[in-house]
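Suppose you are handed only these lines of text.
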Amino acid sequence: MEASVPAPSKGIFDSANLEQRERIVELLCKAYWMEIETVMSYISNSINPDGVRAQEIIESLDQDVQEELGHARQFGARIKELYGVVPGSLDFQAEQSYLQPPDEQTDIVHVIKGVIEAESGAIEHYNRVIEFCEGRDPVTQDMVIAILRDEEGHRRLFEGFLREYKAEGLA
Ligand SMILES: [Fe+2]
Ligand SMILES: [Fe+2]
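From them, the structure of the protein bound to fe (ii) ion can be written out as follows.
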């Protein structure tokens, strides 16, 4: 009797894995919106702050805007590769209540804490995506691991800023 040779697996593109692929696209759409909202929040928070102490934060957020935009593009490209569609603006729902402009534009601690919260939210979601991709979609997983590292770096930087304010009794 001839042994039947199983068809080679097409991985996440295998029709047997359709549901999992759709779930990954959903997770990536959420990540895409998180990046887009972060871009909006970081633009406003890189322009609004007043004062000598604000300059370091402004410069750092200016740079982050470009990085987060790059992340959004990567998430969008992967959504397409997985046969999803990058959502349109009408699907957008804002969530970052903590990154709205403070009452006083010299309130830098508010901005620093907001950035830490945004980065922590991204880190949490991206860890979830990485876990879901385990054994299912190594390419998406690899991409999200690299993005996760950027977010961990962003959070660490702003934790350092907060530490300085705490040391001076300002936070
Ligand atoms: Fe990002
Ligand atoms: Fe970030």
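What can we learn from it? The longest helix spans residues 18-47. The pocket of fe (ii) ion (ligand 2) is lined by residues 64, 68, 119, 122, 150-151, 154 (CB under 6 Å).
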